[in-house]
Structure formats: C-alpha cells, structure tokens
Amino acid sequence: MKRELLTSSIIRHVKDKPSLKPKKIIDEMKRDYGVTINYYYARGGFYPLAFAVVATTENDENWEWFLQNLKEVVSLQRPITFISDMHNSLLNFVPAVFPNSSHGYCFWHLKLNLRATIKGRSRNRKFIEGLFKECAYAYTIREFDEKYNDLMVGSKDNKQDVLDFLSRVPFEHWANAHFPGSRYGDMCSSIAESFNSWVGEERFLPITSMIDRIQNKLKERIDAGKTWQPPIKSREDLFEVHSISTNIVNLGRFSCTCGRWRVEGIPCVHALRCIIADGRPIQNFIDPMFSVLYYCQSYSHNIPPVDVDIGDLTAAHEEVVIPPEVRNQPGRPKTNRFPISGFVQQKGRFRSKICMTSAEWSEMTAKNLFDS
Ligand SMILES: [Zn+2]
Fold first, then answer.
1. How far, in Å, from the CA of 291 to the mean position of ligand 1?
2. Helices and strands: H and E segment counts in the chain
3. By C-alpha distance, which of 59, 91, 235 is closest to 169?
C-alpha cells in the first residue's frame, strides 16, 4: 500500500472518529487493509525538534556537543523535562548543560535493568517488576510510600538485589511522586524509538541524502501541523475550529460537533481552544458533577437507623425459628436462567435482539410466524 494512501486513510479515520485510540486505528488498518502500521503513525505524530547523525557510537563528546547546540534553540524560560534511556553521557551532561531541567529515566529501560539485577526464578522477577511499576506510577508521596513498602515486603529473598538496583537510580528520576518536573504522562522514551523507526528507510542513504530526506519529512509534518488554526469567533459563544476536521463549538450550550464534550462532561480540545482564546476560566465549562461541592453533597446525608421494635431479647433467644417448608418439583432442577424480555437464547447463550442483523431478524420472525 502506498504511503500517501495509507496516510490519507489514517487521516480519514481520525476525522470520522476523533476519539479513536491509536491501538484501535492499528487494529482497523490491519483488518481493512491487511497492513501493520507503527504506533507513531497512528498516534498522530510527535514534534521532532533536533536530531544529529554521529559517525561513531554515542559518547561524552558527541552528546555534550548535541546538548550544547540544543540549548541554543530551545527556550530556557520554561521548565524542560528530559526522558532518556540513562546513557552515561546523558546522566553527566543533561544536568551540566541544563541545570534547571528535570531528568526522568525511561521506565521500560529501568524495568530491563531491574530484571537483569534480580537473580532467581522468572515468576518472582515478574512479580517484583509489577510492584516496582506501582511505585513508579504512584501520584502522591503517601501512595508511593505504601507501594514502596509493598515492594520491600514482596521482594523477599531478592530484597538485596532490589536495594542494589534502587541505590543506582534516585527516586526523583523515576517515581512520579518524587519527580520535580512534569512528564506529561510519558513514562518511557519510546518516542525516540518512534523517530528511529520513522526514518527507517533514510538511514541507509549516504549522509547528505539522508539529511535532505529527513528535512523534507520534517517539513511535511510542520506543514500538516499548520492546518490547526486559531478559532474563528462567529458570534458570542459560537466558534469554528479548524484542525484535522472542522468543528463548531457553542460555549453557551456546552457543545462541540465532535460530540466528546457532551459525552464526557469535560471540554474537548476544540472547546478548550475557544475558552482559552476568549480568555474565560476553564472551570466554568466543566460539568458541575465533577465539582467538590457536588461530591460533598453526595455524602452529606446520613443513613438513619431502622426503627424496628425487636421486643424482648430474652424471649427471642428461647424461640426456635424453623425453616420454611419447601416442596420439591418433580424432575431435575433447572440450572439455566430464564431469558429476560428483549433477549433470545441461541445455542446456550443470550443474545440481544438489537445485536441481530436484519436478515437474522427476518428469519426469526418468519420462523415464529410459521411455528405459531
Ligand atoms: Zn470537540
């Protein structure tokens, strides 16, 4: 399948169903066209800022050179977060060149390191990895402490291996609860792998051609990104947002034609763009059901005790309660549940009439007519 055709199919998928998850797009492309696409393709993209080609392996010299050059093009006015595969040169030079940045270690690489550190049975390793993941993803210090305690207790015979591993990776570089910056939900450096995969064919070209081709590819992405435009205000509360698709946002009615706001109760990306552009407070447009006030009101009621006269407890102790008389019906007791109204039973399973195709429905209706 040609790249252009593949790209247009993905864009059409996203246009038709904006809330479609990348995994689902991959499945649908496989089902409809028999092609397997990469995750970065389905994700709708990343924003490559800088890349470098090194003739030798990655070392202190070329990493320092790269970071120094990167420093020239990125703004230092806002916090920067690095997520890396913990290459030794990066561990040294990221804090040296960007002293105010936060450096997160890729969770996937950490997990591989942990796996290599733990001796013994693989089942045990998997269990410990799971506990480590819970620590990494915990959002608060309190939650982290609990998960960390679980990790220590669950490590049992491998506790020393785990402690050795943790001594090499301080909490503030891998645990959400201790991380000083923001990772925006990205725990792994897989986006770098996506870039490597994206330039797969070009990597085998002579270096000048390679740079040209990558530059063209980047330009295509930048041009595609320019299709996102500021919202156009039609009248008070009514906006038109042009992105991959065009959507109409009505702030007064809390609605967007993409439908997501109505379903989730939280403004979609299109609505957020309009709210921010119009300088209004975002919280005014979130369904009040999500507010602390509503939460507190839900739990503000008391459950009154049941007012029943239990009589004389001494007498109740002496009373013998006899079980009700049950008369068994002839035949073997039925184990199948009765089908509820609106459902038909087929080959031992229940199936909704709504799920039937029109042909199946006609066949069943005709059969019922003849049977009756
Ligand atoms: Zn929308």
1. 22
2. 16, 8
3. 91
Question: From ligand 1's centre to the CA of 137, what distance in Å?
Answer: 29
Sequence spans of domains, the chain: 106-187, 232-290
pLDDT above 50 (res 183): yes
**Ligand 1 centre and the CA of 319: distance in Å?**
67
Neighbours of ion ligand 1 (CB under 5 A): 247, 256, 258, 268, 270
Residues 6 or more apart in contact with residue 266 via CB below 8 angstroms: 286, 287, 290
For residue 257, how far is its CA from the centre of ligand 1 (angstroms)?
6
260 C-alpha to ligand 1 centroid (Å): 6
- Judged by DSSP in three states, 209 sits in helix
Start-to-end CA distance of the chain, whole Å, equals 54
**Ligand 1 centroid, distance to 258 Cα (angstroms):** 4
Secondary structure percentages of the chain, helix, strand, coil, to 5: 50, 10, 40
Residues 244-279: pLDDT tens digits?
Answer: 778 999 999 999 998 888 888 889 989 999 999 899
pTM (2 d.p.): 0.56
**SS3 at position 337:** coil
